[in-house]
Amino acid sequence: MGWIEENMKSTQIRQILNQAFSLGMIIASALMIWKGLICITGTESPIVVVLTGSMEPGFKRGDILFLYMNKDPVRAGEIVVFNDGRDIPIVHRVIEVHERQGTKEADILTKGDANNMDDRILYTSSQRWLRQKYIMGRAVGFLPYVGWVTIIMTEMPIIKYILLSALGLLVITSKEKGLMLFTGTDTPIVVMITGSMKPGFK
Length: 202
What we know:
By secondary structure, the protein is an alpha+beta fold. The protein has helices spanning 2-41, 148-155, 157-183, 188-195; strands at 47-49, 64-68, 79-82, 90-99, 106-111, 130-131, 135-143.
């Protein structure tokens, strides 16, 4: 019986290593896709979630925005995402641009479509204008409501843990179903044991 237990342990270890390798490949693939998007779009945040209603009715809370950034100067009317040192970037519309003569710099003023006042009270260090270097990207497309998944998991961490637990259970269940399909029985572990017995074993 000892060699049977060792065989089962080695099988379990191989399954664990296989699952770990598969998880690592998924994470690596996701990182490669994200890095690829960064290179293509020219911004460190190609995808952002709208967290407030300051851009309604154009963009609502929970919408996902796709960003793109190049060396072209920012123009009035464009919707941009900026971060001048705060924890969370802001998605607002450019309402004024004053280019500095002799330089490539520009003073930018932004405002939320649903706000009554411009963003001067939001800029850090009591700035009256936003520097172009703080612009993370221009909004070039969006998906409505898809970002609510991120918002819910951020505001209610318990939901995130439930989803992760469900995902882990799904992985385990899929492994068991794979063994059932391979052995053609609802008791794959028994089949593994009995199939490895020598002839005449009782």
